[in-house]
Design brief:
Helix content: 10-25%
Strand content: over 45%
Radius of gyration: 15 Å
Oligomer: single chain
Order of helices and strands: EEEEEEEHHHH
Number of helices: 4
Largest sheet: 7 strands, antiparallel
Strand order of the largest sheet: 3-2-5-6-7-1-4
């Protein structure tokens, strides 16, 4: 299971959520393009926590998203990760600081969207959405099928 250690949320977020990703729906963007259940442990009020166990729902892929307050897209936080026992990494960006245990970060990139060539790609609301970019990456790589079996 993924464990978040020494969590510090120091920036104001209008929305801050973590989703246990179980599938994608490329017909929509933002949080709804990532299918799965939300964590009840992560919110804009999380503040400082010594440890958060990500064991609420069965999924090996999770996505953490923070929408800045006031809204400024360059201050939005995005982190996709996959459970990998024994791995760890540090996060210190955009007002979120923590050590992540038993996981590796996953890419959130626009290039994969082009390879997928989804019809919504021409719509700027979709193509600039990092949730949707990651959903496309998941679709192209078939990672969810591989890790959730």
């Amino acid at each position: 299971m993924i464990i978040l250690h020494d969590v510090e949320i120091n920036a104001p977020f209008r929305y801050l959520w973590l989703k246990y990703v179980t599938g994608v729906n490329l017909g929509v963007h933002c949080a709804q393009c990532l299918k799965g259940d939300y964590s009840i442990q992560i919110s804009p009020d999380t503040g400082k926590r010594p440890e958060i166990l990500l064991d609420e729902h069965p999924s090996k892929v999770v996505y953490l998203c923070g929408v800045s307050k006031p809204y400024d897209w360059s201050k939005n936080f995005h982190l996709a990760m996959r459970e990998v026992e024994g791995e760890s990494f540090e996060v210190d960006q955009l007002g979120i600081r923590m050590t992540v245990e038993n996981a590796i970060p996953l890419p959130i990139e626009a290039e994969t969207m082009k390879a997928n060539a989804h019809p919504k790609l021409a719509d700027k609301a979709y193509s600039t959405c990092r949730n949707w970019q990651f959903a496309n990456w998941l679709e192209v790589t078939c990672l969810l099928d591989a890790v959730n079996q």
